Amino acid sequence: xxxKIAPGGPTPVFRQIQDQIARLVDEGSLCPGAHLxxxxxxxxxxxxxxxxxxxAYQELWSRGYLExxxxxxxxxxxxxxxxxxxxxQAPSGFDWAAAAAPAARAAHVGSLRLGARRAAPAATDDLVxxxxxxxDGALCPVDELTRSMRRVLSRRGREVLGYGDPAxxxxxxxxxxxxxxxxxxxxxxxxxxxxxxxxxxxxxxVQLLAGPRRVIAAESPTYxxxxxxxxxxxxxxxxxxxxxxxxxxxxxxxxxxxxRPALLYTIPNFHNPTGITTGQAHREKLLALCESRRVxxxxxxxxxxxxxxxxxxxxxxxxxxxxxxxxLGTLSKVVFSGLRIGWIAAPRExxxxxxxxxxxxxxxxxxxxxxxxDDFCSAGAYEPYLRRIHRVxxxxxxxxxxxxxxxxxxxxxxxxxxxxxxxxxxxxxxxxASREGALLEAARREGVLVTPGSLFxxxxxxxxxxxxxxxxADEGRIAEGCRRLGRALAGVVGG
Amino acid sequence: xxxKIAPGGPTPVFRQIQDQIARLVDEGSLCPGAHLxxxxxxxxxxxxxxxxxxxAYQELWSRGYLExxxxxxxxxxxxxxxxxxxxxQAPSGFDWAAAAAPAARAAHVGSLRLGARRAAPAATDDLVxxxxxxxDGALCPVDELTRSMRRVLSRRGREVLGYGDPAxxxxxxxxxxxxxxxxxxxxxxxxxxxxxxxxxxxxxxVQLLAGPRRVIAAESPTYxxxxxxxxxxxxxxxxxxxxxxxxxxxxxxxxxxxxRPALLYTIPNFHNPTGITTGQAHREKLLALCESRRVxxxxxxxxxxxxxxxxxxxxxxxxxxxxxxxxLGTLSKVVFSGLRIGWIAAPRExxxxxxxxxxxxxxxxxxxxxxxxDDFCSAGAYEPYLRRIHRVxxxxxxxxxxxxxxxxxxxxxxxxxxxxxxxxxxxxxxxxASREGALLEAARREGVLVTPGSLFxxxxxxxxxxxxxxxxADEGRIAEGCRRLGRALAGVVGG
Lengths: 495, 495
Known about the structure:
Radius of gyration of chain A: 29 Å
Oligomer: homodimer
Helix content of chain A: 40-55%
Mean pLDDT of chain A: 89
Shape of chain A: globular
Low-confidence stretches of chain A: 80-89
CATH class of the largest domain in chain A: Alpha Beta
Structural class of chain A: alpha/beta
Largest interface: A-B, 133 and 132 residues
Strand content of chain A: 5-15%
Number of domains of chain A: 3
Number of strands of chain A: 14
Largest sheet of chain A: 8 strands, mixed
CATH architecture of the largest domain in chain A: 3-Layer(aba) Sandwich
């Protein structure tokens, strides 16, 4: 084997060795199975340090040129397919579209549809983001979480880095049970299952209750990412129209008189996307209707903790005497969206069955993260943080309402006035949903990012609507965003 | 409102106030909506510090007795159901078993079946654990991970605590792509989807390819936790018998001649449970058969990195010229089982569709954990750790083979000799699977925990078998465990 080494050149010696050997393998001069000289021998031969040769071999090994035998990197590997990004990008010879199961195809179509409508590239870099709905990263208590993470790793690192209880880290389940009592929900840790966010909780609930072609009921509009999930599970969604005070109870009653859906999916607090919160009487009536027809209620409490105007209304789950409600909670709109901490609170018979489904998809959850979040709460960091973001979001929501009042066309546009949460629903009166593309294009030109209303409807959208969220913009940006949105809407409303 | 305070007693004053107010609410003397005195007023009245009253109110609030209005805790809350563990434990009035969808019912039955057969309580505390199959917590590099976690939180805390790329943290996908090249698999970061462990990857692959009542092919025996997943997805599993050199290729060919299964699930390295590794010729033949019938291969590489005897055989995925293989990887058997880091490597057309399904169930993965694991690998901590556990597991596997040879009945029992991984498959010759209960009971009496063979079969088990794993026992315990297992088997074989 002839290698030419130029010490002191621009290329480090280990890389010269590495490159030349790689070339010999690529051109076939060194065959699979060929033995390279021992590092000591080659180093002596080339007059270089042994560690230089070692490093070259290690690099070659990590690029797949040599056999992966620990401590030894001396045999040329049989490579069945030359590595390289070019190959990776080539289309597969197999038809994955045709091979996909019908449900997977439906989810893919739904996902492309969501993606296409969201991906309106900005005309300007100076963009006001009214589209994001997540805990604001700028408010994130990183230092407190870092302390919690360090404590957990130093006190119980080995334990929380292994497989854990599939229902979730027990102390966190106890903390969550205590927290739910603040909202009048009396459950124990055994009635809680920790999930990877509320989306995961919804998927588990849907899998528990509804197989392919079953009918389910949901508000219309509803949470946009519930829709591709319903399609993946091949459900038939019957939309119950939203009124100013929540879903239309008469329409629900008429539906229940005709058929028994597998479940009712509802978001009673700061409904996504409309921001509407239902009153106690509405919740009691809804529950009574579902109880009388034995229809389980899946209550999405995704922003339960974000009430900052007026008195909180207790969740439907708090009134659930017959054990028919599956409650979904999440931290994601409050703090640490990326840690994926959600939970289900439900009767034990339901939790056991949800757990069986959960284990099929995940074996167990992330113990380290669950333990760190529990430490964060137990150390007293959660409640002061919550009070802080209440102040922030309250001020933002006030700024949004003031901005909309000031800048939106006085006639022809109406919007909701939520008691908490982060979103407001804007409806353009007497304009068809078909104008959505034009409205989005106008908003894009003005430099404001909004979420198109049609994303929230399983079927035809009910008019021309938009969702705006304050979770990603401070008060100054909100005022500017309203100004831009006003200009964008003026064209559509005036036109 | 009459409160009696005894300062200086065993109960702190704030708790006395809290308990007495709670009692007044519980017995109905204080009605929902009643206003408590302002903290200042009550403090003056009782002659205590105002912060003492504040603390009592805060506690009452956090227990659900008062309205949750930030900064104010003075109105008695309408409580619809008295909190208490007793209620939580009461059976639900709703029949969740009847409401469960057929697939959910199947998963629940499967899960109970697994649970019942695993939960053989030990007769002694001095137990040898041959059942666990997970990265050994005692070897876990906690300090290195702690350093990585700290670096990631301090450098990019806000970013990784928010929602991230649903396909996974891009630098980790790049690291994994480089790592896969070590095994001859040429993929780019765009052909990788990070999952919550390999179980999650398998669930996504199954959802992509197979709807209810489709036939799939898998080795028999196979990974135990794949079976409840297949039941949840309502698949019909055709088992291909395992031979000494891997799945029976003739049986696969006969099956493929008759029908086209939606996928073949295979574990070519250190097959779970048998420990068998197939050779390159076997892999090529398997792939050619599946290509000729256009049957996608789901290759489970769960212990790809745990080869420590002899030369590694490249994965089937490395030979995949037609893009028909979905490869599943995981860290869980190597390190940090509880962090749930797995991945899928597949053609982009497949990845896009898997991603759509993934988002329906989770929105995004855990960015913080993915970033910390990437830092752990990029900082050079992974490879030295891997070499270390290779030494450890090699020594354990040698101890297990020596112990089995020394202590198992010379006649009537045979077992596998894996080239890596952690498990050995023991078969009792000429004894029916119906003796499994007696064998497990004997093992329990001797104080050794093993996994019953029947768990790994979709249908009837093929004889009387056991799986033993060395991931949870060191060499001393392994020798002792073999002694105990020998005594347990002697009774069954001799009987």
